[in-house]
Each structure stands twice: as structure tokens, then as C-alpha cells.
Design brief:
The structure holds two protein chains of two kinds.
Chain A lengths: L16 H23 L1 H21 L6 H13 L7 H16 L12 H12 L1 H5 L12 H4 L3 H6 L11 H13 L6 H16 L4 H6 L3 H8 L10 H21 L6 H18 L8
Chain B lengths: L13 H9 L3 E2 L4 E5 L1 E2 L2 E2 L1 E2 L6 E2 L4 E4 L8 E2 L4 E11 L5 E9 L18 H10 L12 H5 L6 E5 L9 H8 L1 H15 L6 E5 L2 H7 L5 E4 L9 H8 L15 E5 H11 L6 E8 L5 E6 L4 H5 L10 E5 L6 E2 L13 E6 L13 H5 L6 H9 L3 H6 L10 H5 L6 H16 L1
Parallel strand pairs in B: 1-16, 11-12, 11-14, 12-13, 15-19
Antiparallel strand pairs in B: 2-10, 3-4, 5-7, 6-9, 7-8, 9-10, 15-16, 17-18, 17-19
Helix pairs in contact in B: 2-5, 4-6, 5-8, 11-14
Classes of the chains: A mainly alpha, B alpha/beta.
């Protein structure tokens, strides 16, 4: 099967894969700034290490034409979903694991079955729980995550609470979402439906919906992780199924799971279902 | 206004289209015309000989099986070669009749005009005699579409399918009387009542002009591919045609506005010898030309001040579905609405990131990235299950793809492969 080397269409939309990945990096910046603001030089150092190691990992195992920004996105998400006192060796290892094994080991950009950052995070969390769970407060007083302590709504919005580096500030996540929506990298459907499903489960189990929604890493996940192209179905109906499943599963894992947060495990589980969801939601066309 | 599924907005090209439609029509008089004998997968038999003097409208070649309508001379002059291989607009080389223009424009014998009482069969015969084919680009012989047809609706398509091209837009603002007459004749041939004719355009100005025909006019969106016939049916008649079902099988006949105008001419006894042709793209002043069929593309290029930098790509037709010309000496065929001149740029294919843009853009609700993937693996069977044969080759998927994959080209190749295997 062949076709002419120069084939129609002869005009293409300007946007490239690199543009999309750069937009995601930009959308992650507010969260990174918040991390540095609240957790200081420690966060800055860890962001730098994560970006450098994911770039190196991308160069090590990626294809020659892979865009660097894609690896940076993975590194940033791994870093921002870790607590501020995560050891540098663990963070570096996590970034290499995410890019080299979970992304390139599965066939490279677009071929990976699981969200690389979330796969790395879940491995880090289960293998090194001591290093991953002791959340630091902004003033570096070790304390439990707000899911356990409870905080005022305002500090949850701003992010002046204990938690993973980049996931505490709801306002900054909102700024990131706005950028992704304006640049049309992300559509409204997945984050909105996942949030709705999450809230419904919380309501049904008589939880404090607002506190549950604003604390922990759910909103960070809804904006930056559930929307990852590779792990979700491409069909419209498939996206709806995916969003509802992942939102509800996150809530259930948070309530009944062994770990304080369920985002990473919920994403991995629904990633597994994605090929199936996609296959059964292929548009059938109009039948005679 | 109802929207069709998928598609893309190409707003940056709208201004060029309107600019071209505003310019006065330039009449081209080429020194030599090249009429390709290859049409619709067949080669026509010449009925002139080298050295013969021909007049405008004289029959040059015809199909032994009458599947393809005859070709007519678009100029008066001397035949200098018959059946010689010459570059063709549809690729490669084809047997061609070459005529030297004497610039005297001597008209041949006209066919008798059609009257109010002409029967549908006579109209269909006239379609054949006048050399009518689908001028929107399909090139499907009009007489074969209308023969024995009993339809309920006639959609006259003035929505230029392609960006940049403005031939239909220009025509619908200029030759309104001809369009009206032609549309009524088409309707009569198809057994369509007059109040079931819809003139469809995407331009408000053209809609105003077309209302003078006293036929119903529908204004549609500027979204691409509004001019594709299935999308036209979807938006005008709120009906999505099942896969593999042609509009004519559902009682709907769609004809291009230029075909309708050519029908109007045919009724006056004039065969199809000229067409309106847009020169656009990265040029200083996009414009419409009236070209005799067979005029080399090079003569049209002479009217364009090319602004594209570096290597230039000449595309026969519009940028979304047009074919790159390998030679500018090819003659302009009846079906070609324009020439798009673009800077030659190639973007290498990178891996699919599953962003789903192609799935959203596909007007046929296909999964382009998936078919692309299977095609590369050579799994034609599963491409068939994924309805690859319903692809319109509109190019929307490739246009939106951030990984710059050649989705449309590969799916078109798959479609061809499936067709060949089923024969």
C-alpha cells in the first residue's frame, strides 16, 4: 500500500505535539510556583532535579524525534505529586522509572498503557512509604495530610496546608486549568465529569464534600492527570465513561483504601480499562 | 443553523476567498490547449485528426460505450497532435489532443435550444451531448447520475468545498439567471418539484444574489467540509445518510452550481467549453479567471504574483483535497475549480499522542488514528471493520493532527486497497 509522498491536505494546523506539551508545562508552572512559595528552596531544588533527570531519561531511551517537553511534563508531575522532603535519590529514580520504563518501555510517546508519572508515584509510594507519606507543612513541621487533620476552606484554596508539593493550592490548579482550556489542550468534559462523579460518591457516603474536594490531590489529578491523552479513550462516549469511573474510583479509594490518597491507583486501574472502553464506544456510523 | 458532525474551521482562508470573488473576471485566451483523453478511468476515442481545423464547441473525442460524455474544443484553431502523451492534471501522463489557438473564436454549429416542454429523457441526452460532468470535483458524468432518476429533492451546491477557491462563490453572484434555468432543468430531469429545489451557499452575499432565481436558498456555515454532499444533506435536510448509501438512493440529488450553470448553457445549445477557475493561495491578488478547458495551468500562474517564499507547490484544486501538479503544462480539466499556490513545506510524521483531535474532526465519525495504525501494520481486515471505506478523503484528520501524521492519505490508500481486493 503506497501513497504519494506529497499528499493532500497541503495545509496543516500550526500546532504540533511540542506546542501541546509546552502548554502543559506552562499550565503546571503556577503549581510549581506555589510549591516553591510554600516549601521554599527544598521544592525549587527538587523541581530542578526532576526536570533534569526526566530530560536525561528522555534522551536516554526516547526516540530521536521525541519532544523534550513531553519528558518535562512527566518529571514535573512526578515531582509535584511528592512531598517536599522526598529524598533526591528517590525522586531521580522515580523520574527515570516513569520515562524509561513506563513510557519508553511500553513503546514511547502515545503508546504507554499507564500514565507514567502516576505509575512511578505508586511504585515510590508502595516501595518507600516512609519517605513518601510524611507530609511536611509549609513551616517544615511534620504533620499528617489535611485529609487527616482538616483545615479551613481558605487555607485549602490558597494551599497553605500540608500535602504533596504542587497539589495543595486549589487556586493555582485553577489557573493551570484555565490555561489548558483557553489553549484547547484540554476539554471541559473529563475534569468536570470526574469531579461530578467524585462529589456524588462523597455525597452518597455523607462526607464533607467541599473539604474532600479541595484537599488531597484530587483536583490536581482531575486537571493534569485524568486529562492525559494516552491513558484515556479518544471517543466522546469513552471519555464520559473514563471520567466517571476515575472520579468515582478515586473517591472510593480515598475513603476505603489503605493509603490516604487514591488518585494514582484509580488512574492506573482505569488506564487498564481504556482500550476496552475505547473499543466498545467506537462510533458505529449510521446503519441503513 | 444545523451543524454537521466534525469538520474544521479554516477562518484564515475566508478573507482570501472573498477577495478572489470581488475581483473582476479575467478572460484567458491561451495559445495552445491540451485536452486529456483520460477521464473517469477510461480513455476516450478521438474524432478529429492532426491538421484538422476545429471550431469552439466542436466534438473532439467520445467514449465508445457512452459512459463518459464527449469532450469539446474550447477554442478555434488547428489540431497539432492527437493521442500524444502529455502531463495530465490527475497525475502522470495521458493521451492528449493539442490544439493551436487561432484566437478568432469561431463558433461551431450550436445544438438546438431546449424548450419548456422538453422531456426528462431529452434533458439527459443533452447532458451527454453537452459534455456535462460533476464540476465540484467528482467529475461523475451528469447524464449517468440523472438517467432514470426519480428524486424528491435537488440540492444545488454552491458551497465551495475547498478553502481559497471562489469559483462557485463568484458564479453564484454573477450568473444567477443561468443557475436558475439550469437548476430547473436538472429538477425536471430528476422529477423533482420546483419547491423541492434548494440552492445552498455559505455566503450571505451569494444567498442574496441567488434569491433572484425565485428558488429556495439555504445559507449554511463556513465550516469545512460544508460543500461535501453528505454534509450538505445532513445540514439541509437533517438526514444522515447510512454508510455506503448515495444521496440518489435516498431520493436526493446533489449537483454543483457550476454544473447547474453548464446545464443552463447546454439548454441554449452550448456545450461545456469554459469554466470559472480561481488562482489563489499564497499570492498577492487572488482572482477568478474564465478559462477554456485545456488551458495549461502555466497560463493561469502568469496571473498570480506569488508571495510564497522558497520552493513553491502548485496544487490542482484546493489545499485540502487537491493534487500536487507535477507539470504546469497539464491542461485544466472540467472538474478543476482552481489552482492553489503554496510554499512547499513538509513536516515529518511523529508518533501519535492519542490526543483524539482526528476523531473529533472526522465528519464520517471514523477513528482515523486507529485506521492509520492498523494500515501501517497491514491489517486491512480490521480497517474494513473500522469503516475505512466511509472516509470522504476530506483531509480534516491530517489537518488537525499535531503529530503531523498523513492520516487522510493513508486511509485513502486503505480505501483503494479494500476496493481492489473486493473486485
Amino acid at each position: 500500500m503506497t501513497f504519494p509522498r506529497v499528499s493532500p491536505p497541503h495545509i496543516r494546523r500550526d500546532r504540533t505535539t511540542s506546542d501541546i506539551m509546552t502548554d502543559v508545562c506552562i499550565a503546571l508552572l503556577p503549581c510549581a510556583v506555589a510549591a516553591v512559595w510554600f516549601f521554599g528552596i527544598a521544592a525549587l531544588l527538587r523541581l530542578a532535579v526532576a526536570v533534569a533527570s526526566s530530560l536525561a531519561a528522555g534522551r536516554l531511551t526516547g526516540r530521536r524525534d521525541d519532544v523534550d517537553a513531553a519528558a518535562v511534563v512527566t518529571g514535573l508531575i512526578v515531582c509535584l505529586s511528592c512531598p517536599a522532603q522526598v529524598p533526591l535519590w528517590l525522586l531521580t529514580g522515580g523520574c527515570f522509572f516513569a520515562v524509561c520504563i513506563m513510557r519508553d518501555g511500553f513503546g514511547g510517546i502515545g503508546q504507554n498503557m499507564f500514565n507514567p508519572a502516576m505509575a512511578a508515584r505508586s511504585v515510590m509510594l508502595t516501595v518507600f512509604p516512609a519517605q513518601m507519606i510524611g507530609y511536611g507543612l509549609p513551616d517544615n513541621v511534620s504533620a499528617a495530610t489535611p485529609l487527616i487533620t482538616g483545615s479551613s476552606i481558605w487555607s485549602l484554596l490558597v494551599g497553605r496546608v500540608a500535602g504533596s508539593m504542587g497539589e495543595t493550592s486549589v487556586l493555582m490548579i485553577g489557573v493551570g486549568l484555565a490555561w489548558l482550556l483557553v489553549r484547547r489542550v484540554v476539554r471541559f468534559r473529563v475534569p468536570f465529569l470526574a469531579t461530578a462523579a467524585f462529589c456524588i460518591v462523597m455525597l452518597a457516603t455523607k462526607q464533607d464534600v467541599l473539604a474532600q474536594l479541595l484537599s488531597g490531590s484530587f483536583l490536581f489529578g482531575a486537571v493534569f492527570i485524568f486529562t492525559d491523552f494516552t491513558g484515556k479513550p479518544t471517543t466522546a462516549v469513552g471519555e464520559v465513561c473514563f471520567a466517571v469511573l476515575v472520579g468515582a474510583l478515586t473517591a472510593l479509594l480515598r475513603l476505603y483504601g489503605r493509603y490516604p490518597e487514591g488518585v494514582c491507583f484509580a488512574v492506573l486501574a482505569v488506564n487498564l480499562l481504556t482500550p476496552f472502553i475505547e473499543r466498545i464506544t467506537i462510533p458505529k456510523g449510521v446503519k441503513p | 443553523m444545523k451543524r454537521f458532525r466534525g469538520g474544521v474551521t479554516l477562518s484564515h482562508t475566508h478573507a482570501m476567498k472573498e477577495a478572489a470573488a470581488r475581483e473582476a473576471l479575467q478572460h484567458l485566451s491561451p495559445d495552445i490547449v491540451y485536452v486529456s483523453l483520460r477521464a473517469g478511468g477510461r480513455v476516450l476515442t478521438p474524432c478529429v485528426t492532426t491538421g484538422e481545423t476545429v471550431r469552439v464547441g466542436q466534438r473532439l473525442a467520445e467514449d465508445d460505450e457512452k459512459r463518459i460524455p464527449p469532450l469539446h474544443s474550447s477554442i478555434s484553431g488547428t489540431v497539432t497532435a492527437v493521442g500524444i502523451f502529455h502531463p495530465a492534471a490527475d497525475g502522470g501522463e495521458a493521451p492528449t489532443i493539442i490544439i493551436q489557438n487561432d484566437k478568432e473564436n469561431r463558433a461551431g454549429n450550436l445544438m438546438p435550444p431546449l424548450t419548456e416542454t422538453t422531456s426528462p429523457d431529452e434533458i439527459v441526452t443533452r447532458m451527454y451531448d453537452a459534455g456535462l460532468v460533476g464540476m465540484g470535483g467528482s467529475g461523475y458524468p451528469t447524464h449517468r447520475k440523472y438517467r432514470g432518476l426519480q428524486a424528491k429533492w435537488l440540492l444545488v451546491n454552491a458551497c465551495e468545498c475547498e478553502p481559497y477557491l471562489a469559483a462557485d462563490l463568484f458564479l453564484s453572484q454573477q450568473n444567477v439567471a443561468l443557475i436558475g434555468q439550469g437548476s430547473r432543468l436538472l429538477a425536471r430531469a430528476a422529477g423533482v418539484e420546483e419547491d423541492h429545489i434548494r440552492l445552498c451557499t455559505e455566503s450571505a452575499a451569494a444567498a442574496d444574489a441567488l434569491r433572484e432565481t425565485a428558488l429556495a436558498v439555504v445559507t449554511l456555515s463556513k465550516r469545512y467540509p460544508q460543500g461535501s454532499e453528505r454534509q450538505l444533506v445532513e445540514t439541509v435536510l437533517h438526514r444522515r445518510l447510512p454508510d455506503g448509501v448515495l444521496p440518489t438512493q435516498d431520493g436526493i440529488v446533489v449537483s454543483n452550481v457550476a454544473t447547474a450553470a453548464a446545464m443552463g448553457d447546454a439548454a441554449r445549445g452550448l456545450p461545456l467549453t469554459h469554466r470559472i477557475f480561481t488562482v489563489s493561495g499564497q499570492v498577492e491578488r487572488p482572482m477568478n479567471l474564465l478559462v477554456p478547458i485545456g488551458t495549461p495551468f502555466a497560463d493561469a500562474v502568469a496571473f498570480a504574483a506569488v508571495t510564497a517564499k522558497g520552493r513553491v507547490r502548485y496544487v490542482a484544486g484546493g489545499p485540502m483535497t487537491g493534487r500536487r501538479l507535477t507539470s504546469l503544462m497539464a491542461g485544466i480539466p472540467k472538474t478543476c475549480g482552481g489552482l492553489t499556490i503554496l510554499a512547499s513545506q513538509s513536516s515529518p510524521e511523529t508518533p501519535c499522542i492519542r490526543c483524539g483531535a482526528c476523531v473529533r474532526a472526522c465528519p464520517s465519525a471514523l477513528m482515523p488514528f486507529w485506521i492509520d495504525h492498523l494500515a501501517q501494520a497491514g491489517d486491512i481486515e480490521r480497517c474494513t471493520t473500522l469503516r475505512a471505506t466511509s472516509c470522504l478523503s476530506c483531509g480534516c484528520c491530517s489537518y488537525v493532527c499535531p503529530a503531523k501524521r498523513q492520516l487522510a492519505a493513508r486511509i485513502t490508500a486503505v480505501k483503494r486497497e479494500i476496493k481492489e481486493r473486493s473486485v
